[in-house]
Amino acid sequence: MSKVSITLQNTDDGRQIVDAIVSDNPAAEVSRMPALTKIDCEGRLCLKRETIEERLGRSFDLQELQLSLISLAGNVDEDDDSFTLAWEAGPATKNA
Amino acid sequence: MTVSAIGRYEFKARDRLENFHGNQVVYFHWEEHLLYCAGLALPLPPAMPFRTVLTDILPGCYGLHPEWPQVDWSRVTWMLDSRPFKPVMDASLAANHIGHKSLLRFWTPGLHGIGGIATC
Amino acid sequence: MNAMPPLQKQRKLSLKERYAHLTRDLGWETTYQPMDKVFPYVAYEGIKIHDWDAWEDPFRLTMDAYWKYQAEKERKLYAVIESFAQNNGHLNITDARYVNALKLFLTGVSPLEYSAHRGYAHVGRHFVGAGPRIACQMQAIDELRHAQTQIHTMSHYNKFFDGLHDARHMHDRVWYLSVPKSFFEDACTAGPFEFLTAISFSFEYVLTNLLFVPFMSGAAYNGDMATVTFGFSAQSDEARHMTLGLEIIKFMLEQDEGNVPIVQRWIDKWFWRGYRLLSLVSMMMDYMLPKRIMSWAESWEMYFEQAGDALFEDLSRYGIRKPKYHEVAAKEKHRLSHEVWSIFYNYTQAAAFHTWLPSEEEMTWLSAKYPDTFDKYYRPRFKAWSEMAAEGKRFYNQTLPQLCTTCQIPMGFTEPDDPTTICFRSAEYKGERYHFCSDGCKDIFCHEPEKYVQSWLPVHQIYMGNCGGAEVKDVLAWYHLNFGVDNFDYEGSPDQKLWDEWQAQKAANPV
Fold it and tell me: Which of A32, A34, B6, C55 could bond to C221 as cystine, CB 3.0-4.6 Å?
């Protein structure tokens, strides 16, 4: 397996999002650098809207992540409730 | 191979000889002396005798190096465009088969950079 | 009588539904003109697409959300820029040498943001599917924003420091800026699929972390809050751009097996092009930040070797392998920044920023980060140069360098297995000789020689008489550089003098 990764700004929202990620993804490894925090996780990482809302104490649209994101690695899938980064195992799907 | 293009795709070389007003470009590199960070480019008349390059041109290029005064041209080994090369000192660049955008690399026996360190 | 349909309770659309409405109903089969006339550039590169609707932006960003969040980013950024200016933020940077990294950024990178704006606007017009068209449109607007905010932010430094006064003009003329300029023009003159592979995938996804993350983190560490903020404001768009890069690659690979070898060749080419371009960043990280975050070698390991392993393992299911010559980049990582700094130290008399000898403390850091190479190969060179400088004879290379035809960097890179011998490669095409710094650059030329025979090599242009004259002073005037002010060593520069005066004032008036 390979690690997926997300990097966030060290802002007020950013810090809460990092905490939420860590609580939802116990395998996540956190590296703190000046002005930013990088999180790596084996295979898959999931951000849940609900957890972030609990931390922030307000409603949170996952697209607000756009304001705190710096970088990421992995295939993205986003819907209203979760934002997932994953390296997919298995064969490629062919449309043709 | 060719470029994938939406039409005819052919261009003259931008750096062709005729654009240099009678000069040709010749590249030199003094091996094992990387105080000079890269190969050097010089515009020279093709009729210039090889000896003149050594006496009049290269000192202005490499003269700041402390080992430069010790270079003994009779012992220097040369490569011209990836082949071993023995210059005819009084013949011109052209007669020495040094063409436009030829590369001359030279090694100076006994001189291997300051303190024997080739990056110096 | 008209039957009124029963009123339905309006349900809020989900993210997926909103995105589907945006990207499925905006594209149609044209009838006034045939599709291949309306979209003339989608086929000639050989990429086959069977179902444009299979492409989807995983962020599922819709236009209303885009404007909302981009406006919020701008508000935050301009608040910081204003407060930085009002509080004389430039006085709080670690050292004025740091500003030289900004000079290189403003002249080398910001104009690329503008080129990217044009590039994405162009390819966005030419894709058939609404999904990639909208993603490209958003990115085109982002890139314009990046160019504007960077120029705006750095204009504050232009009030005090030299070399920041005419970045756009310099980008088109100054010798080392032909490296980023030609890189981007190579991409913009390719077809739309190669452009996206070049910029969205190889540059944004695979390599851009190495530019922005350490640079912005470095800016934070060196007290430059304005740059941190524009950097992160841009970088927050970058995550979306990176995702576009990965999605477009997967899309091409999934659509037709015949696309795989074409995409692989583009990945090979653009990895190497991008890597060579980033050698400028390597010197910025190891030499130009007074306080350093991590070394080039460390960031290469983190952002290319580890992240790249994961990426290319994921892509291996399509038959894609790691880019050719990645192992050469690994061999070069312990010498790259030292070789590039040496090039600029040699030719600072013709640059729009200053260079300098690293201090003893900085050399200790470099020794620790590069234990196998620094003391052996590069410390002795700095010692030789510092002895020359101490005698009042600061070393400047008096002769213009030979350039690589492909990347346009002076031929100063060494053999993959020998850091003491310059790597010379050459090829002949239609009776002309061409020279390259590496097998990577040679391969790129040999695949499309017609493209690179047009290279505008600054050294040759000077010798052809196209750059204002034969003397350094003439050429610098043509570059719009102020001779004796913008160029030469930091030691003795007006920047240094000004900075030292500020420090003396600070010391005399402690708060």
Answer: A34
In CATH, what number is assigned to the domain containing residue A17? Answer: 3.90.56.10
> Residue C172 corresponds to which tokens in the numbers above?
């088109």
Q: Does C388 touch chain B (CB under 8 A)?
A: yes
- Strands B24-30 vs B102-107: parallel, antiparallel or unpaired: parallel
Tokens of C387: 């002895």
A92 part of a folded domain: no
Strand order in the sheet with A3-9: A29-33, A36-42, A3-9, A69-73
Chains B and A are touching, with contact defined as 3 or more CB–CB pairs separated by less than 8 Å: no
What is the identity of the amino acid at A96? A
Please name the helix (run of DSSP H) or strand (run of DSSP E) that holds residue C127, with its range, or none: none
**A55-69, C113-127, C224-238: least confidently modelled range:** C224-238
Rg of chain C in Å (alpha carbons):
25
Query: From the CA of B74, how many Å to the nearest CA of chain C?
Result: 23
Q: Which residue has tokens 């002795």?
A: C380
Identify whether A48 is part of a domain.
Answer: yes
Residues of C in contact with B10 (CB under 8 A): 450
Q: How many domains does chain A have?
A: 1
What pLDDT score was predicted for residue C214? 76
So what's the pLDDT on residue A1? Answer: 66
- Residue C306 touches partner A, C-beta closer than 8 Å: yes
Does residue A55 sit within a domain?
Answer: yes
Tell me which residue range forms the domain holding B84: 22-116
Q: Where does residue C90 rank: exposed (0-12), middle (13-18), buried (19+ CB within 10 A)?
A: buried
What CATH architecture is C52-508? Answer: Orthogonal Bundle (1.10)
The domain tally of chain B equals: 1
The reported pLDDT for the residue numbered C4 is 60
Nearest to C438 by CA among C417, C460, C458: C417
Q: How confident is the model at residue B1 (pLDDT cuts 50, 70, 90)?
A: low
CB contact under 8 A, C401 and B39: yes
What's chain C's average pLDDT? Answer: 94
Per-residue pLDDT band at C227 (split at 50, 70, 90): confident
Q: Are strands B102-107 and C425-429 parallel, antiparallel or unpaired?
A: unpaired
Specify which residues A42 forms β-bridges with: A3
- Cα maximum dimension of chain C: 102
- Chosen for mutation from B37, B105, B106 (greatest number of chain C CBs closer than 10 Å) is B37
- Which CATH number belongs to the domain containing residue B74 in this structure? 3.10.20.560
Question: Distance (Å, rounded) from C-alpha B112 to C-alpha A94?
Answer: 59
Q: What integer is the mean pLDDT of B65-78?
A: 98
Which chain C residue shows the shortest CA-CA distance from A71? C239
Q: Is C65 an 8 Å CB contact of chain A?
A: yes
SS (H, E, C) chain B: CCCCCCCCCCCCCCCCHHHHCCCEEEEEEECCCCCCCCCEEEEECCCCEHHHHHHHHHHHHHCCCCCHHHCCHHHCEEEECCEEECCCCCCECCCCCCCCCEEEEEECCCCCCHHHCCCC
pLDDT in tens, C42-84: 999 999 999 998 988 888 899 999 999 999 999 999 999 999 9
B4 located within any domain: no
In-domain check, residue B88: yes
**Which residue range(s) make up the domain with A16?**
3-86
Domain membership flag for residue A96: no
pLDDT of A93 higher than 60: no
CB of C356 closer than 8 Å to CB of C327: no
Model pTM score: 0.94
